[in-house]
Design a protein that fits this description.
Elements (H helix, E strand, L loop, with lengths): L9 H14 L5 H12 L2 H7 L38 H14 L5 E3 L6 E5 L39 E2 H18 E4 L2 E7 L9 H5 L9 H17 L6 E8 L7 E9 H14 L11 H9 L1 E3 L2 E3 L2 H17 L5 H11 L8 H22 L15 H17 L11 H4 L1 H6 L1 H11 L1 H10 L1 H17 L14 H17 L4 H7 L3
Helix pairs in contact: 1-2, 7-8, 8-10, 9-10, 9-11, 11-12, 12-19, 13-16, 13-18, 13-19, 17-18
């Protein structure tokens, strides 16, 4: 804390600079009051008296983090605003005084603006609050590596003007404070080049904030309204910039991703993403964060936990898919398929259902974009692909068994217990699974014979489409089995939603 005496050599330097500014032609009433208070040396005792910090017997703060506290000044009756940080006159006076102080510096061509300006090799930090010391630009390699042998002095690599550096860093700091979304250790943000604030943050447009399932309908409506309003308030010449920032070390800030495109294209690509990633007729769509968490995370205490670095990197890759209209990365798709084949890894039913939804929409989008296929939300009864057909059989087996359970029955269906083995060896596993359905079929025969008849008819129709002489019939299934399972399950639950036992009995023999 350079405001207090006895806590380092910076206090005297700070008082000296304040005094020089106060004696200059650019002085200000607020400055005189602050200088007088700092010279009194009572700031620590005043803070202690008001319970902000605790002092040791020798008058120093007990906790070292107190030395990093930020202090804001309020000086009464000294301008339009009492708050120093809102007083434009005070800010302008400092700018003029500091500019005069720097007038004796080195001048040259700024590599950013290509204008003649005073050059600087000292750039601002504090762009990210959680990594305050990280800088985008620095040149402190004057020993040991010495710029990796490429340069002798920092100005040989680049020359940056003081004005450009201050404007760029302060603008970026403002953007981060107002329009950021932090995922793990990475910060995402977007902004328009034209004047005026953007209508909504990237968390709304790209859906990277966590939302509960019941919020999805409102979220999709909000997204559409935002995009519509965004289009109405942007011109064809507007440009949108998207970037991510990450503090790789305590002193270095990097830009892992940067892109710019027309505002209209940006809105259309975001809308396109949500259209192709819909997984049911109500318009539910996963967020980028959910895709990352379920692909590479594990369930723990009811939530999906994933390494922060993996989460941030995966969300960025998915963001690139949104902006560049690119297919989903193969490793993300197959990570979800892998989780889909292991339903017993999920304790919470909500997580299991969400994982199945994500795997379905990921495979659907992946196959449509990469292989130019036309998969949608509806069941394809004409598809003869082996994996798709076996996926349908798995869904029927699960639904048949679940129909015999009571409301309070929490058992896991055999179809889910055998799902991984089924995905690896479908033919041999289906024989085992079919045999285990016998007692459940008997229960349905007594209570819901019409529904049992429907299931047996479906199994027969699917069996007629399978090429039983295929030598590869018992080899591992492709990702299409996810689509077959999901389509058939949705069709069954849609057909039998609201059907009573009496209706099932009446359906018998139809």
């Amino acid at each position: 804390m350079f405001l207090a005496p006895g806590l380092g050599g910076n206090h005297e330097k700070y008082k000296k600079q304040l005094s020089e500014w106060e004696r200059s032609e650019y002085s200000h009433p607020k400055l005189s009051a602050v200088l007088h208070y700092v010279q009194s040396g009572s700031i620590l005792s005043d803070l202690a008296d008001h319970g902000v910090l605790t002092l040791t017997p020798d008058g120093k703060p007990e906790k070292e983090e107190c030395l990093k506290y930020l202090v804001r000044w309020v000086v009464l009756n000294t301008g339009t605003y009492d708050e120093a940080w809102r007083d434009r006159e005070l800010l302008d006076s400092y700018i003029h005084w500091y500019g005069q102080k720097l007038s004796n510096g080195t001048y040259g061509i700024c590599g950013i603006t290509w204008r003649h300006d005073m050059l600087t090799d000292t750039h601002a930090k504090g762009i990210l609050a959680y990594a305050y010391g990280a800088k985008l630009i620095s040149s402190n390699d004057s020993s040991e590596f010495t710029y990796r042998g490429r340069f002798c002095r920092p100005e040989e690599a680049a020359t940056i003007g003081y004005t450009a550096s201050q404007k760029a860093h302060n603008a970026l700091r403002w953007l981060v404070s107002t329009q950021r979304v932090r995922v793990g250790k990475r910060t995402f943000l977007w902004w328009k080049l034209s004047e005026g604030e953007s209508e909504s943050g990237i968390d709304v447009l790209l859906g990277m904030a966590k939302r509960n399932e019941e919020d999805f309908l409102n979220f999709r409506k909000q997204l559409r309204e935002t995009l519509s309003g965004y289009r109405n308030h942007t011109s064809v010449d507007d440009t949108v910039l998207i970037a991510s920032l990450e503090a790789a070390t305590t002193g270095r800030l990097s830009v892992p991703y940067y892109s710019e495109l027309g505002a209209g294209d940006f809105a259309e690509r975001v809308q396109r993403w949500y259209d192709i990633m819909t997984y049911d007729s109500r318009g539910h769509t996963p967020t980028l964060r959910q895709l990352a968490e379920f692909a590479f995370g594990n369930e723990r205490t009811g939530k999906m936990n994933v390494d922060e670095d993996v989460l941030a990197a995966t969300v960025q890759r998915l963001l690139q898919c949104v902006i560049d209209c690119a297919p989903l990365p193969k490793d993300i798709v197959f990570a979800l398929v892998h989780k889909f084949s292991r339903p017993l890894a999920f304790v919470e039913r909500y997580n299991l259902n969400m994982m199945q939804n994500l795997a379905f929409t990921a495979v659907k989008s992946y196959r449509n974009q990469l292989f130019k296929e036309e998969w949608n939300l509806g069941l394809d009864t004409t598809c003869t692909d082996r994996s798709y057909l076996f996926g349908r059989l798995l869904a029927i087996a699960e639904k048949l068994e679940n129909d015999t359970y009571g409301k309070d029955d929490r058992r896991t269906a055999n179809a889910l217990r055998y799902q991984f083995a089924f995905s690896q060896h479908p033919m041999s596993t289906w024989k085992t699974l079919y045999e285990k359905l016998t007692p459940y079929k008997e229960r349905l025969r007594k209570n819901r014979p019409g529904r049992l008849s429907d299931y047996e008819k479906l199994i027969g129709e699917i069996s007629d489409l399978i090429q039983w002489d295929d030598p590869n019939l018992n080899t591992g299934l492709s990702e299409l089995y996810v689509l077959g399972y999901y389509h058939q399950r949705q069709a069954l639950y849609t057909k039998y939603s609201g059907v009573t036992k009496e209706n099932d009995n009446e359906n018998e023999g139809e």
